[in-house]
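Is this the right way to post structure tokens for a design question? Let me know if I should format differently. Anyway, here goes:
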């Protein structure tokens, strides 16, 4: 019998529609897989088995009754724990939210529920999405299914590991500086950061509001397009939501899979390769470029001279916004409340004791940084300068997109590093996002797909970037490259990952 956990979401949806399998069977298969591999992987913070099976049974009943269902109805999904879910614990990986059960759903969760996708659970993440390894979670590490001693990326390491380990065919991530694309790259999965404003931020626990975007984490480009179309589109509850409809993403993925890129101009970003990039990552990147060329694309070189300042600008803007967004965790309204061990119980002292106990080191570091950058006297020198750099980066992209339809780079400079390796070196950790951060600063969409295994036998990622609101181009190019790569590998890259259930 087919192992239902190995199917893509599109294939599983096809079998559900044809009545060959039930959603209860598919959901149970994933819950069984979780029971087998979670002790090793720890992708989930909370498993919602009963709720998921109830949704599945309801979808099966509606299908049997002949109801018109969404094409993904009955396909299970995992949701990053920074997205609020009514009735399911939501911690954002932080002790300060331990035990909080939201009274409402994020818009994207409402859409998932309305379409009938059983939510398997909430996935692990760096606290408040701050990190590149998931090691800043207050609830323990997630392990990379390719090598359990290595990081699954971050902040959305739980979503990426769940998908890579066949614990979910679909997952939701969020990307402020790379937290969808970087985990996808190091786990051999597909991750998409949509155009800023194209997926509602209503109900995401905000890290940096001008940079945050939710998006899909999947095993195939087509699956990402299907999920992106489901969660995206206008939402009046998000004031930054784009009013016009999404471009045709699924159609673009299907068109791309046919493999013809004649006339498409692909711009290779000079500044996002070379020094600091692992040779095997660069080798896979250049092989992918050759495949794109063989499909008819024209490869051009483009320069984005201000990208060298992107990381610096990001690490001022992001902490500034985060320090303001995290001010609401005051010990009064949500989750944890700690009273001072001695002395008067004033509001300020409760706040200090709660934050002292509830926030981890990385969160404290960023709140201090952001508060400093925004303080009177320093505001212009730090935050103001960073905003000017942001404008220069947006202009770099505008110039580059005049010469090319899409831009490409390796998603990350290296493959997954060892757990603990960069934990005491914040700057080394921040450098993982050097290639992903510019897209967030400019609000443009980006996709990462696996480009092969580097010299160390671990997955490398290929990043495609497109102009704002042209997310369809990501899917066209991504699906074309995926088809060519899989032909050269003789199947999906993930089939080369170690079997986590060898003892069975
Ligand atoms: N790793 C980056 C950071 O630590 C990006 C995080 C994210 O995209 N949420 O800020």
């Amino acid at each position: 019998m087919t192992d239902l956990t190995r199917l893509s979401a599109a294939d599983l949806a096809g079998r559900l529609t044809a009545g060959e399998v039930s959603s209860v069977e598919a959901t149970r298969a994933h819950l069984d897989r979780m029971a087998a591999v979670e002790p090793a992987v720890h992708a989930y913070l909370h498993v919602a088995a009963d709720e998921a099976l109830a949704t599945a049974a309801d979808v099966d009943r509606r299908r049997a009754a002949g109801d018109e269902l969404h094409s993904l109805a009955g396909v299970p999904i995992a949701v990053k724990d920074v997205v609020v879910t009514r009735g399911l614990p939501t911690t954002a990986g932080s002790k300060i939210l331990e035990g909080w059960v939201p009274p409402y759903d994020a818009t994207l969760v409402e859409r998932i529920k309305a379409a009938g996708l059983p939510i398997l659970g909430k996935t692990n993440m760096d606290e408040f999405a701050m990190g590149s390894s998931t090691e800043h979670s207050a609830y323990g590490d997630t392990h990379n299914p390719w090598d359990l001693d290595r990081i699954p990326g971050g902040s959305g390491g739980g979503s990426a590991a769940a998908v890579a380990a066949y614990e979910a065919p679909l997952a939701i991530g969020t990307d402020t500086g790379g937290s969808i694309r970087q985990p996808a790259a190091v786990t051999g999965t597909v991750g998409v950061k949509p155009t800023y404003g194209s997926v509602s931020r209503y109900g995401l626990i905000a890290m940096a509001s001008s940079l945050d975007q939710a998006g899909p984490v999947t095993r195939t480009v087509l699956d990402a397009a299907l999920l992106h179309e489901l969660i995206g589109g206008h939402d009046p509850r998000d004031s930054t939501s784009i009013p016009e409809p999404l471009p045709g993403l699924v159609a673009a993925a299907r068109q791309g899979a046919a493999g013809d890129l004649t006339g498409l101009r692909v711009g290779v970003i000079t500044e996002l390769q070379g020094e600091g990039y692992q040779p095997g990552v660069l080798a896979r990147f250049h092989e992918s470029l050759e495949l794109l060329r063989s499909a008819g694309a024209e490869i051009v070189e483009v320069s984005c001279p201000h990208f060298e300042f992107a990381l610096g600008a990001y690490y001022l803007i992001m902490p500034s916004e985060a320090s303001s967004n995290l001010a609401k965790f005051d010990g009064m309204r949500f989750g944890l409340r700690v009273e001072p061990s001695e002395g008067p119980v004033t509001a300020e002292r409760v706040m200090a004791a709660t934050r002292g106990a509830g926030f981890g080191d990385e969160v404290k570091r960023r709140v201090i940084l952001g508060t400093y950058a925004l303080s009177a006297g320093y505001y212009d020198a730090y935050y103001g300068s960073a905003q000017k750099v942001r404008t220069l980066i947006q202009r770099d992209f505008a110039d580059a997109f005049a010469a090319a339809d899409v831009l490409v780079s390796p998603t990350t400079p290296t493959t997954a590093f060892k757990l603990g390796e960069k934990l005491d070196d914040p700057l080394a950790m921040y450098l993982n996002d050097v290639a992903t951060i510019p897209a967030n600063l400019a609000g443009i969409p980006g996709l990462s797909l696996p480009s092969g295994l580097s010299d160390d036998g671990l997955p490398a990622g290929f990043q495609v970037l497109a102009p704002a609101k042209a997310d369809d181009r990501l899917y066209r190019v991504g699906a074309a490259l995926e088809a060519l790569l899989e032909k050269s590998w003789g199947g999906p890259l993930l089939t080369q990952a170690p079997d986590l259930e060898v003892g069975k």
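Format looks fine. Someone answered above. Worth noting: The chain has 16 helices and eleven strands. The pocket of glutamine is lined by residues 129-132, 155, 175-179, 207, 318, 433 (CB under 6 Å).
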